[in-house]
Amino acid sequence: LAKTTQPISMDSYEGQEVNITCSHNNIATNDYITWYQQFPSQGPRFIIQGYKTKVTNEVASLFIPADRKSSTLSLPRVSLSDTAVYYCLVGDMDSGAGSYQLTFGKGTKLSVIP
Amino acid sequence: NAGVTQTPKFQVLKTGQSMTLQCAQDMNHEYMSWYRQDPGMGLRLIHYSVGAGITDQGEVPNGYNVSRSTTEDFPLRLLSAAPSQTSVYFCASSYGTDIGNTIYFGEGSWLTVV
User: Fold this and answer.
1) pLDDT at res. B19
2) Can you tell me the mean pLDDT for B98-105?
3) Which of A4, A41, A45, B92 could form an S-S bond across to A105 if both were Cys, CB 3.0 to 4.6 Å?
4) φ, ψ for residue B84 (rounded to 5)?
5) φ and ψ at residue A9, rounded to 5 degrees
6) Could you give the CA distance from residue B89 to residue B109 in angstroms, rounded to a whole number?
7) CA dihedral for B60, B64, B68, B74, sign (positive or negative)
8) CA–CA separation, B108 vs B36, rounded Å?
9) DSSP state, B84?
């Protein structure tokens, strides 16, 4: 059961700002929103994480509205090396055991064009 | 620290053979999981464990077994390999799942079943 929705793909020219939006209507109160980046033939790696409002690090910014039903990953001035798949991730409580499953969306394939 | 280590990196199996994908982490993480990734698809959760002695099924558990006898190790067993199990497998670990903990992924294991 998919818990997040992202665009399948996006194209951008080098030097532009890229915004990728993820919908997560069923986000739980204790869930954080986390974004991961995956290059071909590699495992995903952490980019940024937030709970509400805005978070910024040396790589990206994450914007989360008050209702937390969506989030937007912002990559400033992308380069060719930013070509990758970006995953939006939220925690997902298993309704039965109370344990947690982590569910990845299908990801957004970002292609940066010279 | 080595992080999350997966072996083997590449493996070719014949239909019906069994094998074990090894996964070890040296970060004292409680949560470990296995994902598979097929071409053009996102990551799908196979099995996960919230601590030693505790395992549970993810989205696509059929044909796979896991065990968690120690905190460090989380092997994935294919009991009778099928061509449909040809995929890239990623092991992951994190300190926990409920407070936005970062997930660390292994480098992946490429499995081909012929």
Assistant:
1) 97
2) 73
3) A4
4) -65, -10
5) -150, 160
6) 5
7) negative
8) 9
9) G
